[in-house]
Amino acid sequence: MNCRxxxxxxxxxxxxxxxxxxxxxxxxxSGVYKADLDRHKRRHSYERxxxxxxxxxxxxxxxxxVIHDHT
Length: 71
Prior knowledge:
Blueprint: H1 2-7, E1 14-16, H2 20-24, H3 34-43, H4 46-60, E2 65-67
Parallel strand pairs: 1-2
InterPro entries: TIR_dom (IPR000157), Toll_tir_struct_dom_sf (IPR035897)
Protein name: TIR domain-containing protein
Domain TIR: 1-69
């Protein structure tokens, strides 16, 4: 997302087994990302994890492809 902001690069999100509306839009409160973000909060600085959460929220606002596992 930094490259998009600073250099105008294109971002093509692919949402694999997650919902961009629910899981990615609010990753720190619930959904598939909560446990992982809680673990990262213990290992990394607040600023670093907050930047990841901000990036996930920004990505959820971009049209992309939602892929469900149909195996």
